[in-house]
Amino acid sequence: MKLIITGGRQSKSSSSYFNKEWNNGISGIIYEYDAIKETIKKKIEYKTPEEYRPKKNFSISFKSGSIYKNKLFVTTLTEILIYELSKFKLIKRISLNIFNDLHHVIRNNNDLYIVITGLDLVVRYSLLKNKILTFYNCFPEQDTWKRFDINKNYRKINTTKPHFSHPNHVTYIDGKLFITRYMQKDVLIFSKQGKIIDKINLNEEIPHDGAIFNNSLIYTTVNGKIIKLNKTSFKKKIIDLNKFEKQGNSLGWCRGFYQSNDHNYVGFSRIRPTKFIENIKWLGSKLSDKVKLKMPTRIEVYNKDFSKITKTVNLEEIGINWIFSILKV
Question: What 8-state DSSP symbol labels residue 156?
Fold first, then answer.
């Protein structure tokens, strides 16, 4: 079994860790991990052209993506890139003026669902018509186009933070969109036509991204938990991965998940500095303790029932400084 890992690399400069988070990444990187042979190979290192990013103080990274019919759909902060997987060849780029801090993309039939975190928005984009068909406002308390200018080129803006909802991840099931919202700690459910039809409160858990496995929606939370939701009843089960850390350290930013029949692959990224402390206040007392923030970027492989860690794949030692997606080829 082979897994695709998407993420980013930061500067080797000793001061790079202390840069603002939106100008910390120097390239997007994709690696292929062979879980049987236990080998890992770099397949892509990518830099966003200046046409699609700010001129100064910019960041480059791959964020989350998905695989559809042997093609990889992956986001940078301002682009959707489509790669043919057999040769990892770039075959298409989509970049629109409203793209800012993209976090995730999936394909369903001939449509892409794109998470535009910088505008607290998800859109449905037609690959046949090459245009947006539907907007999904993830902060419905305010009209999107009263907050933002639809004619502005947001690709040239470093950051629109602070965000009001910060959507992270979209899943499409039976004509419905399930969108995680960081700030509200919930999953907002839309009809395909753009109407909000339900909401799943996750209480104190802060969802980031996830996967579908059998009858469950599975989400990671940034503070090291796995949430399993029944697709129909939304009954919730929480698995706390912090139980494996006996020294009181932060596990890191928990993001990226894949479940096979026998194992669970969970991504953790080293905690990065941020101007917006509310985004990492879940660290509690660990926030001021540099020792407790030193866990490296890695994939932890757990057994089927999360009762033990069977392997740790250190990604930082090969130059992956943060991880977003773990996808089965």
Answer: G
